[in-house]
Amino acid sequence: xxxxxxxxxxxxxxELAGTLNWSFNVFPLLKPGLSNLYAKMKGKNEPNALIFxxxxxxxxxxxxxxxxxxxxxxxxxxxxxxGPLDLYRGNKEDEIAYVDAxxxxxxxxxxxxxxxxxxxxPSGNLN
Length: 127
Description:
Blueprint: E1 7-9, H1 10-23, H2 35-41, E2 50-52, H3 55-70, H4 84-87, E3 98-101, E4 105-110, E5 115-120
Antiparallel strand pairs: 1-2, 3-4, 4-5
């Protein structure tokens, strides 16, 4: 994205917004960083139409990038350390882990250890 005062196409604005939206899965508190970008795109339909990058958009994107670099994101599981050797029992045929993810949460199950982990999704709207 160029400096404020320059112009970008609506398509470039949409591509930037779409890419940054993926980061909100891990950094949901940074969503306000696109408010002015979305406001500038509102009501526009022509993909090649040029839109000015104003100071508000530049400031929002600068804020967003600074916070992306400084943030640790959202952690879905605890910080318990474990690795492949912790799971190995000696018989590789038994080493199957079942994983399931849904709109409600994430789960892992290690049948040979009779150990499972689960994590519910945070409550509230993250979109």
